[in-house]
Design goal:
DJ-1/PfpI, signal, Rossmann fold, 5-stranded mixed β-sheet, alpha/beta, INH-QAR, Class_I_gatase-like, AraC family transcriptional regulator
């Protein structure tokens, strides 16, 4: 666990409280698997993401994925960036508050790799004085400057799209009272207590209400990003993107209760990844090989999954230790060089789509640490398709 506490992510205190309450819960709900959903279902009909309306003089939707330099959740930031950039019909920018690298952290707060982004918010504002059409907000610290910039973008009629517990950042803006929204299941009690005027909505992977779109935990960034492509560029483009990233559907249908701690079903796997694995075993280093042209979502989900086991910490490596450029132009700074004689286990995922990469990581975790640990990671990611 990283020493710094990020209010927008899965915190040990929240998980501990959930585990204590597990015995009071009813029987587990059945998880809805994407493969059981109709692949051709229109996400905009189910989640009511408003169709994009171009502003005068604007031929492409302008999208900013924003991060506070001190740290963003790696999958929350890179998965939407990768999927939206892949569409090829959108103007997508990775934006930081200040110049300099963007630090990342993983689902349980471990430090991740660093990224050199496209631009700062000041540079973005200079190029787009009328504001973005959409601002993607990953889980991160809700700093005053970030809140101020999001309020500015909202006043300029941007739609705020929060990923996972990025919803807590948007909630702190104070402009979305009375709206429907969702976030990671683990923050449910905190959200309801701190922001009671927001209608927190379970059992949807993403929710759209006016100019706020919000998603459930981690893996929900995949269907929500495809749904956003559909809202902007149409169903045919969304189907193309879904196939390209390995998704079978992008429905908002979800069963939130299937992922929270329940005795006899989910409590044990969650306890393993949060507590007992590290208490009993320590954490093994796992090297993940980076490569020029690698999909950002593939990279993020692989690193994130292997760092959520409680048994392992993933490190981004390259053959030279030098930075490399991803599929959509981000410059990524590896943690270290992979030495030819290294005995550290190596994971390669550069040729996989994001969904395939997450499945491969979960399968690799299951082979190395057992089914319960892999299930715990899937539960933490709110990933309904484990195992395939």
């Amino acid at each position: 666990m990283a020493s710094r506490i990020f209010p927008g992510r899965v915190l040990c205190a929240a998980w501990a409280a959930s585990l204590v309450l597990a015995g009071c819960a009813g029987p587990p709900s059945r998880t809805t698997r994407p493969a059981e959903q109709a692949p051709a279902a229109s996400s905009t009909q189910e989640a009511a993401i408003p169709a994009y309306r171009a502003r005068p003089g604007r031929t492409r939707a302008v999208i900013a994925v924003v991060g506070e330099n001190s740290g963003v959740e790696v999958s929350d930031f890179l998965v939407p960036f990768a999927i939206l950039s892949r569409a090829g019909t959108l103007d997508v920018s990775a934006v930081t508050l200040e110049a300099g690298p963007l630090s990342t952290f993983t689902d349980l707060g471990s430090p991740g790799f660093r990224i050199e982004t496209d631009t700062t918010v000041a540079q973005f504002d200079a190029v787009h004085p009328d504001g973005a059409d959409y601002v993607i907000v990953p889980a991160q610290a809700a700093t005053p400057r970030l809140i101020a910039w999001l309020k500015q973008q909202s006043r300029q009629e941007a739609t705020i799209v929060t990923i996972c517990n990025g919803a807590l950042v948007a909630a702190k803006m104070g402009t979305f009272d009375g709206r429907r929204a969702t976030a990671h299941w683990s923050s449910g009690a905190t959200r309801k207590k701190q922001y009671p005027a927001i209608h927190w909505t379970p059992n949807q992977r993403y929710v759209a209400d006016g100019n706020w779109v919000s998603t459930a935990g981690v893996s929900a960034a995949i269907p929500a990003s495809i749904a956003l492509v559909e809202a902007i560029s149409g169903r045919e483009k969304a189907q193309h993107i879904a196939r390209a990233v390995g998704a079978t559907a992008w429905s908002a249908q979800h069963d939130s209760d299937a992922f929270s701690p329940r005795l006899g079903t989910t409590a044990l796997p969650l306890a393993k990844v949060l507590y007992t694995n590290r208490w009993l075993h320590g954490r093994d280093p796992i090297d993940v090989m980076g490569a020029t042209g690698m999909d950002e979502g593939t990279l993020a989900l692989t690193i994130d999954a292997y760092s959520t086991t409680g048994r392992s910490q993933a490190y981004l490596v390259s053959a030279t230790g030098e930075p490399f450029v991803t599929r959509h132009g981000l410059r990524v700074l590896p943690d270290r060089r992979r030495m030819p004689d290294s005995a550290v286990p190596l994971v390669t995922a550069a040729d996989l789509t994001p969904v395939m990469a997450l499945d491969a990581a979960l399968n690799g975790i299951m082979q190395r640490y057992g089914r319960a640990t892999a299930k715990g990671v899937a539960l933490a990611f709110e990933y309904p398709d484990f195992p395939r």
